[in-house]
Write a structure and sequence with these properties.
Layout: E1 5-9, E2 48-49, E3 52-53, H1 55-59, E4 84-85, E5 88-89, H2 90-99, E6 104-105, E7 112-118, E8 124-128, H3 131-137, E9 138-142, H4 146-151, H5 159-167, E10 172-176, H6 177-183, H7 199-212, H8 219-229
Antiparallel strand pairs: 1-8, 2-3, 4-5, 6-7, 7-8, 9-10
Length: 242
Amino acid sequence: MKRFLKLKKYRSRRILALVIIVSGVTGAVIANPSSYEKVVQADQENEVVDGKVSAKSVLEKLEIKGRAPKTGYSREEFYSGWPKIDGCNLRQIILKRELGDSAKLADDNCTVLSGEFDEPYTGSHMIFYEKSDLSNGLQIDHVVALSDAWQKGAQYLPKEVRYEIATDPLNLLAVDAKTNQGKSDGDAATWLPPNKSFRCQYVARQISVKHKYSLWVTQAEHDAIMKVLDTCPNEPAVGIDV
């Protein structure tokens, strides 16, 4: 019997932080060096609502094009596994970020052994009693799937930039494994989180990743994202400075 539990739906508009500095696990993951590093700045045409750049205005800046061929795609075109940053595996860093103060760490001060959190894709509160529960119950999702990124511009970028897409905390969330498998490599036109209260934050994060790495959207994807954002017109983009 699985020991981790899904207890209750939550309604809060919890915005997942891009980076948290935590005791023993560094938030310096975004300092991962590459030739593509940049701080994304809002330009004068972006709409600013309550001091934050609106996701809608960022969406309107994304190029709309058809999918490029999937030919040549493999995950190895992006990365060959989770890197270590300051001695800690990136998967463990993301788990610690999401589980926050509830996370119990092993003696290496990196490996997460147990914890609990409000899982964003299902809206359930999940409790993990052992490391095996975490391994079986959670996956680290690429919010913009790597296959989707490949077909929408990433295949034309330098490999070091694709590495950044695959390892950028902006594009990573710890989520329910079964739900993530159902998502597969879908974009917003084909898959949205079952937890409707998280959809605005989800598409805002997708938009922000695509903006940061100059990826495009299809017309169907654009329209699906806009339909979500019409329900939350003040939803902010993520990681874009005013």
